[in-house]
Amino acid sequence: MSLRFWLSCLLLLAGRAVQAEDLSYQRDIQPIFTAKCVACHACYDSPCQLNLGSGEGASRGGHKLPVYNGVRVKAQQPTRLFLDADGDAAWRRKGFHSVLGAENNQAALMARMLELGRSQPLVPNAKLPPGLDIGIGRENSCPRPGEFDTYARKTAHGGMPFAVTGLSDNEYSTVQRWLEQGAPVEHRQLTPSAVDASQIAEWERLLNTPGARGSLVGRWLYEHLYIAHLYFEGGEGGHFYQVVRSRTPSGEPVDPIATRRPNDDPGTRFSYRLRPISDVIVHKTHITYRLSATKLARVQSLFFDGAWTVDAVPGYGANHRANPFKTFQAIPAEVRYQFMLDNAEYFVRTFIRGPVCRGQIATDVIRDNFWVFFQDPQHDLYVTDRRYREQTTPLLAMPGQFDEMGGLFAFWKTYRVKRNQYEQLRTQAYANKPADWKQIWSGNDNALLSIFRQHDSSSVRKGLIGEIPQTLWWMDFPLLERTYYQLVVNFDVFGNVSHQGQTRLYFDLIRNGAELNFLRLLPAASRQAILNGWYEKGGQLKLLLAYTSIDSSTPSLLELGKADAKRAFARQLLARYTGINAAPDPINRCQGGHCYRSDQPVPLQLAEQALSRLTSKIAAGLPVIQQLPEATLLRIEYGDRREIYSLLRNRAHSNVAFMYGESLRWQPRLDTLTVYPGILSSYPNFLFSLPASDVPAFVAALEQAKESGDFERLVERWGIRRSHPDFWRYFNDLTRYLEETDPVEAGVLDMSRYENL
What we know:
Elements: H1 3-21, H2 25-36, H3 55-60, H4 88-93, H5 109-119, H6 148-154, H7 169-180, H8 194-207, H9 212-225, E1 229-232, E2 241-246, E3 271-276, E4 288-291, H10 293-304, H11 318-322, H12 324-327, H13 333-342, H14 344-352, H15 360-363, E5 369-374, H16 381-384, H17 386-392, H18 408-430, E6 449-454, E7 457-462, E8 471-475, H19 477-489, H20 497-519, H21 527-534, H22 539-545, H23 565-576, H24 602-611, E9 631-638, E10 641-650, H25 662-665, E11 672-677, E12 686-691, H26 695-704, H27 708-718, H28 727-741
Parallel strand pairs: 1-4, 5-8, 9-12
Antiparallel strand pairs: 2-3, 5-6, 6-7, 9-10, 10-11
């Protein structure tokens, strides 16, 4: 062969070698970040606001100010990725510093953080070093490159990934080579498929229907869907969209308008647009909503086929934001309520699970587990009685629009008085309408929901899950809409302590209203005693000073008997609504001797039978409950497959009526466990992995664990600690499990609450 041929071969090989060195952010780096970093660095609770779920977030960098600050006296400037700024220069003006670029002859901050983490490896599957604070309330230093040496001296184990098994050798070298190459970031460009693009055009056409009526409907729909991850039935799998207000009309590139709240004045002409969500899907913010031809026809029928008219489109002032019932009063109440009922799980998720990633401002007002159901529109007086609606609408305004520090308790008093006046009118109006079964809505499988809270986060599932809970909520349209506006539309995660306090105090009133409505279903003579059981100790003072008195005279038409009317109601609810109960639960509510799902393979049936022994017991009789975290995941292997179960610790409280002092109201000896087949938390606190054949021994060890040493031996045998050599294989398998079992709802889980057991 000729010399020219060999020279050509050498040049080709050399070219390939150079090509191999050219790393791509999307191909080579983002997958590493998704597997090892996004579990902590996503959403508002990301340390130092460093969001690694996209190229835009990585190049934006970090910020010293945390988003979560429960004592700030001034509202903070919003820093929402893909909305509040565009491009690195704009983010630098907002105080963000690069973690990718070299500075003053110092290596990139990310490179040094990774080096620090690699220089201090953890002892395999051992507890973390004493004194290492991994709590979500810790104060993060967020050093800039010039401050790193001081940070490293003070925080030997502060490298990345933080307090967990690190990157593999290949991952580490890949990221370091990319940083050495200047950390080039190409942003992910998503173009809707032809099928999606066609449906986007149809929905944008509906949302931007011309005329006053179309403007009002578009605004209402936008305010109720802006938080959703929208996806199309029959569309390209895995693509999600978000509705925004854009300066540009359909057919042109989206130019989103950033306002603090979605019902703030946009300040210019705009169109409602659907734009692709381009960052990594994380479970904690992934609140999905399906769009389809059927849904489009349903919305068209509900909102546009009726004969109602609009005299004038309302403005965006504080009074309109505070009272959506007044703002949207031209749209028939039945239409608005029915739209929300059709999609009740979505709406309850928006305020129970929420998009803010750390929700204790709302979650400390709710019990750790309860059931929710809804009042039928045909029996909701706000929907059916025009005179009653006109009387009560002015009383349904909500606080939080003004955040003067000195006005917190004045605002609270004003709105508490309005709310209590509303409750009194409501009680009078329903006095001649005794509750019966037909007043409970049963239109689809969204009608029955279960809520589980884990301290500062909560989850919602269709169906009635777990043992019969202490409290139940019966929500009507004013309760559902107020909760949505108070906790979602009008809530500002960047707001000050006055705004957050007003939100929390008013949600306390909403919860109380849902409880009082439920009590109407029970015998009149039983109501006060049940209510007193929900408001023990200091809660009695709150009953006297803050809430309206209960209706103890209007009878209920339900035949529940005199003994334990609440439990009798729950049993009848389960029996009457089996057709729409999406979660029959033989594990926690065992009937007879078969405490498992009969459609499962035999190894899982035996495992579930054993796990059922942990339910229906309080911690006083099963002491290990007090050593378990709030959301423990159990990975059970059988053959070449595995199933995931959630062990949820339900904490008992004497009451949930106060903003502070939750630990003083906690009754740990009354805590219980719920066993759920699947993943029922975005924030797992710990993971056990074991073969199905070990489940009886695992359950027996839990039953026999009396002291911390007993539990630690159990962790050492089956637990996956943060320092486990294969931690990330097990943790990322949770996402794979979601992708296999419920791909629409799948997303990367958060590990920031993973405990040091």
